# Entry
Amino acid sequence: MAKRFNGEGSIRQRINGSWEARYTNPITNKQQSVYGKTKQEVQKKLKEKLRELDEVKKEEEYNRNGAINPNKITLNEWFDIYVNRYKKERVKPQTYAQMISQYRVHIKPYIGDNKLRDINVGDITDVVNILNKKELSNYVIKNTISRLKSCFETALEEDIITKNPVKSINTNGLGKSANIRRSLTNDELYWFFRGLTEHSIHDKFLFQLMLTTGIRVGELSALRWKNVDEDFKFITIDSTLTQYYNDKKEYIVEYCTPKTDRIRKIPIKDDVQSLFKQHKTILMEKYHGRKMTLTDEDFVFQKPIKKGMSQEKVQRIIDSIRNYLDKEYGIKLERFTPHYFRHTFATVAIHSDIPSIDIQKIGGWTDGAMLSKVYAHSNEELMTNSINKLNISF
# Structure
């Protein structure tokens, strides 16, 4: 007589002595069988088959309802959902872009294809060790793991995983200490601006403005003529340029609020105001030659005409001048980025006894203590100037 097995399927012994288990496939609604030499073997086969069918049925339900299958989803798949559903509309575009880039470089190659539920503390520890061997800074390692922890924590809240394997990971003491943000020396500035004068004179004012205002390169890229006072005494910083690849791998250029969310006015040095006016006159002449009119909505710095100046373009100008100086004069300037002009502005401003509150407002720094800690270092030239200010008689 056929017997029920755990309430599902039925088991019977056949005439030839073998055993058969019959069950109804919930997907096709048709009866199917498994066979074995013993009752125990058939019981085991039936149990495995019913478990497989249960998984298939659940998968179909997940697909039908558009739900996440916690047993199948990989970290790559979950991160894509996490960053677009939970972060994209809640963080600035530059933060969103940084999160995607950080994950793609530091996480995806190592555990991205792993099923989310299978990732354990050991896997995360291995990733941390790999990042440490890359000699990344402590900040990069800590920031990467902190964001990964948040990614897993959201999966935990959504009942996709049962525990967060990143929660207990400690990154203290790992990675290199952050490099001191050095300013450019007078010698470097002399040669760089000489190179601009000889090789790329039309780009010179861009760097003069960066050096005398501490403006971020993203803010410079977003600067429009509506942000410049008519008398060229002030510029208003109300946006910054962000560039990133979205989830569809499309290159996106966006303008958003500055890094600190604060709109600020920056005073222009007296001797720079005339250069500003000259820069606008030259640009207006270029527009006139093309039978175009320069408007308040046009960018202050353009390459090519009508197109904003990206950070990559500014960096290429710097590298071009360094190569020119090396070729023409044998002067080898150490490679630097546009941000070095911000470092130089802050360092010189501090050592010029400009009140820190004014420097903070001009540069858009939120923390005065951080400003002093990061930029108050001296190079040999500044120390020499400082020591000679000592009023000592002997």
Notes: Residues 75-158 form a domain with the DNA polymerase; domain 1 fold (CATH 1.10.150.130). The chain is about 50% helix and 10% strand. The beta strands are 3-4, 10-13, 19-24, 31-36, 234-237, 240-245, 251-256, 264-267. Confidence is low (pLDDT under 50) at residues 1-7.
